[in-house]
Each structure stands twice: as structure tokens, then as C-alpha cells.
Amino acid sequence: MEPIIRLKDVSMVYGGNGTRATALAGVSFDVRPGEYVVITGESGAGKSTLLTILGGLQVPTGGAVRIGGADLSRLPADGLADFRRGTIGFVFQAYHLLPYLTARENVMVPMSPERMSPREKASTADALLASVGLAGKEDRLPSQLSGGESQRVAIARALVHDPPVLLADEPTGNLDSATGEQILDLFSRWHGRGKTVLMVTHNKANLARATRSIRLRDGRVEEDRVVRPLSAQPLAV
Amino acid sequence: MNLRKLAWKNLLRRKSRAVFTGLGIFLGIATFVAISSITSQMEGAVQDQLDRFGANIVVSPRAEQFSLGFGNIALGGAEVAHSRLTMADKERIASIHHKDRIRSIVPFLMTAADASGKNLVWMGLPAAAVAEARPWWKIRGGTGPKRGEVLLGAEAAARLDKGPGGTVTGGKRLFRVAGVLSPTGEKEDGMVIADIADVQALAGTPGAVTYFEVAALCKDCPVEQIVDQIGQALPAARVSAIRQVVESRKAAVDQLRRLGLGVSAIVLLIGGLMVLVTVMGGVQERTREIGVLRAVGFRKRSIFSLLFWETGWVSLLSSLLGAGTGIAVAYLASPVFGIEHPSIVFPPAILGAVAGLSLGLIGAIPPARRAAALSPTEAIRSL
Fold first, then answer.
1. How far is A112 from chain B (nearest CA, A)?
2. Which end of chain B has fewer CB within 10 Å, C or N?
3. Which of A48, A47, A35 lies closest to A2, judged by CA?
4. Cβ B9–A113 below 8 Å, yes or no?
């Protein structure tokens, strides 16, 4: 099967003369469609940098990144924006919902520049909110939602354009364990529907749901192992 | 949800910032509209006064001054006219190229003659033209004189001890006093005013005219051209435009207008800077939000549009509000500036609203460009 993500000798060096900091140093791996990859490592290992490179938010200083057939280093700024909108769904640790918008409106934000009718946008948002268990809470502001509910809204927002790849940066980091489990259930459900999931986490419990684990150390891949065979059925949720 | 609504929602969240952003534009536009409206109405008032003044051109015989003296002793001077004006000259004036711009031609004859035993100056003009030629006259006891009647200036009435209903002899004729003028502060206070035909008969100079007062339609009136044309029609006459008073008043209004425009320009400049500074500050505060928007696939152009819409909303509302306030202030303050009949002047309000919106949008360009150029990496680092 053709990999959906291919990294080859990817490096990322921050700073200039005298203050150079290497975040990634020659990272290479492939991810096949439908894999659920958990990326672990200590703080400063390069996990978040790797995620932003995979999301097309920054271009590596060396190496090549291909996702869904696109060479990210060759895409112009608008091309990268289109790539993010169509291919990537981002979920952040701190949700990053816009506080002045309701849950429905937050989910509609990625559709704002598009020429769709407001009704169509709203029905898409409502369907996604219902799919993450937030039916009836569409008109609530983030301040009226719990942490888990906010993260569900963020997941719904990431899924608006039905991206094939979901990137998550410590999505359960701000949640208690029970709520965190519910969020992971959602990821498992969407993984079960064919999404490729890459999740940065400190929590080793998240490994149980993954098909593969990659551990980074000092900007290099220290370990890359299969947790469950990809051909196996995803965990029932 | 679209970019316009997203921008609007963000404004509602930061009401005080939005108010501060729009305050400069509001003040600038309100100042501009108020001053422009007032000066525009003042110009109209000046024009009204000119119209009420009646004539704006005087046609009199060309004359030369001769000084008389003997050795180093000055004996005064004499003015010698080249020719006399007559009633027939009225037709010549009325036949000029710009005749359609001439509202009225009123002949006057001045002569010194006996009035009930007192030597007074008689002013003759067509009885029917009194109201049009001297609209500011206030006549006690009646209206303008008919043939065989006179009006007395306030001082003349006092000297003759006559009032409305009385009689005055002139030559061998008896004239009924139709009314007495309230004091005007002019020489006519000491005159006897009668129909020009009566005065011509009294002076024994039928058809004679001392001068003509010509009233031309004044708005954008080519007075100089009319003066030239009358001069060509009556080569022996001196034709003068009465412009000094009006011009000085117009100059004062122009100065006020320039002052107002200067103040408005400064306030608007400050308003534009306020927009630039507050929106720029807003961009810095919203780096995280911009990062989220870039992460969910917003193009640079969409970020630019979002900031542009936000400032557009503020500029539009503050411009409209400023224009409305300016109109209201101008209307209420008009009496203070001597405008008797205030009216709403729309062109400055429309111009002000467009200028305010444009200024706000121009002020938003640098911060919007900065937001759009914000690297996703830089934005996302704050997440």
C-alpha cells in the first residue's frame, strides 16, 4: 500500500549564528493510510515540531515531506493553506476555540471563506457536533462547555472538510482520565472510519489504541514499532 | 458563518476597542460634515443677502474730476459728466448678450428741489419698483408711493414735520405723504422719495436719469461679463459692480471653510492613526487566533479580508454616525452663525461618510497585511 505520509531525512534547525537549536535531525518514516500512530518522547524531543511540519505549518530546513502525494516543500503559501484545509485536521491540547463564537460557529470557522449557504454550513456543523455527542449544545459558548466538550468541538472543527489525516497534539493533556478516555474513543471511532491518525502524547496509556508507536529522542527516531497489525480490526468503541 | 460575520462577532467581543478605533473617524467626520454644512449654508445666506440687496451693478455717467485752484490755494473741485443718462438707456442695457441674467433695471433721478419751503434732495424711481429696489425699507403708514405721492425719509419727515396722510408741496404740485421710512442710516433718511416721472417733471428734465441700478441673477453670475457688455452698450457710462461687501463676506466664509477643513483633516489623520495603532495592537493580541485560523486552512487573503472587514464595519458605522451627528450639529448650530433658515445639506454628509470609510480601510491595510504575512509557525508557536 502506498504510504499517505512519507518523511525522508527531515531536519529542523531553529535560530541563526551562535543560537542554533536542532529540533529534528534526519527523521525518516512512512505512514500508510489508516494507521493510528502515537508519537511519544520527552519534552524537547521534537514531537510538536514534527507535528507542525506534518501539518504544513512550517517547512523543514532539510529533507522532504510528502503527504497525500503532495511535496510540502514545493507548495506555495496558499497551496499549503489549501493542503491544510483539505488534507489535515488539527486538534490542539488547549482546544483553541474562538471564545466569542458558539460551538456551532466554531465548527463553521474553517468554512468561513467558502461560498456555501449559511444553512448548509450550519447543518454540516450540527451533524458533526451530533457525531461527537454534542447535539443540543450547538449554541453554547466555549465558556459554557466543559473541557471534554470543548475538545469535542475542536475535533468536530478538525473534521469539517473530512480530512484523511488527523493530527493531534496532546489532545487529552488538559482533561481528567475519564474524559480523556472519551476523547480517545472519538479518535478511535474516526480511525475506524478510515482516517489516518497521528497523535503526539506523553500518556503511554494512549498506546493501547494505536497501531504503531514512534518514540523520538533528541530529534531522532529512537524507536518505531508496530503495536497492532494494521490489518487487524480497529478497537471497538 | 462567513468572514463578514466572523469579523462582526469579533467586534462585538471587543466593544470598547471597536469604539476607540472608530472614535477618531467619528470625530473627524462629524467635524467635517458640521463645518462643511455650516459654511455651505453661510454661502447661501450671503447669496440671499446679495439678492435682497437687490442691485449688484450701478450704471452712472462717466465723469471727470477737475481740481480748481489759484497758485497754491486749493479752491475745491468739480465733477463734470461727459454725458447724461436717459430712460432710453434702459432699453440698451436690456439688450446685452446676457440679458437673460438681468433681473431688473431700476432708473434713479436725484435732484435738489423745494419741498414745502425746505430745500431737500428728491429721489425718483419707478413707484412700482420700490419694493424690489429697496426691500429693506420699512415704511410707516403705508406702502410705496403712487404717482402724486411721496415717501419721506425719517429726517426729512422730522424737518418738514409731516407724517403719513399729510401733504408736501414740490414746485407747484401737491404731493400726498404715503408713508415715512424708518431710519436707515443712509442718505435717503433726509430725502423725499417719489415716482421718477414726478421728479423728472419737478426738475424740468423729462427722461433724465442720474443712475441705473441693475440686478443680475447672482448665483454663479458672470458679473464681470455683464459689466463689460453694459459698458459696450453705453460707452459714455461708468459701470461698476458692487462686490466688495459680498466678496469680503465670502472671503470670511472661505476662511472659515479652510479652517474647518484643516481641523477636519487633522482630526481625520489622528483617526486614521488610531485605526492603524489599535488594529495593529489587535493583530499582536490575536496572534494565537490567527494561528488557529491558519491551521484550519485560512489563506493569507482570508486573514487580510477578515481584518479588513472588521475595520470596514467600524469605519462604516463611525462614518455614518459621524455624518449624522455632523448634520445634527450643523442644523442646531446654524442660528449661531446667522443662518435664519437652517437646512440639511447632504453632499458633505455623503462625502464625509465615504471619506471616513476610505480612511478607515486605508488605515487597516498595514495591520491587515501584517496579520496576513504572519508566519503560521510564529502564530502556531503561541498555541
1. 4
2. C
3. A35
4. no
Q: Which H or E element spans position B139?
A: strand B139-140
Question: Are residues A98 and B2, on separate chains, in Cβ contact within 8 Å?
Answer: no
Q: What is the ipTM of this complex?
A: 0.82
A212-217 and A220-226 beta bridge pairing: antiparallel
Residues belonging to chain A with any Cβ–Cβ distance to chain B shorter than 8 Å: 52, 55, 57-58, 77-78, 80-82, 84-86, 90, 92, 94, 96, 98-101, 105, 108-113, 118, 121-122, 157-158, 160-161
Residue that has been written with the C-alpha cell 502524547 in this structure? A201
Nearest Cα residue to B307 out of B83, B34, B7? B7
Region of residue B275 (phi > 0: left; psi between -120 and 50: alpha; otherwise: beta): alpha
Owner of C-alpha cell 489508516: A34
* Spans of all domains in chain A: 33-60+76-226
pLDDT at res. A236: 46
Which chain A positions have a beta carbon within 8 Å of B18's beta carbon?
none
Helices and strands, counts by H and E, chain A: 6, 10
Of B3, B376, B383, the CB nearest to A113: B3
* Domain positions in chain B: 3-50+248-381, 57-241
Task: Please tell me the distance from the alpha carbon of residue B330 to that of residue B337, in angstroms, as a whole number.
Answer: 10
Q: What is the pLDDT of residues B330-370, one digit of tens each?
A: 888 888 877 777 888 888 889 888 988 888 888 888 888 88
What topology does CATH give the domain A33-60+76-226? Rossmann fold (3.40.50)
How far is B241 from A18, CA to CA, in rounded Å? 84
C-alpha cell at B89: 438707456
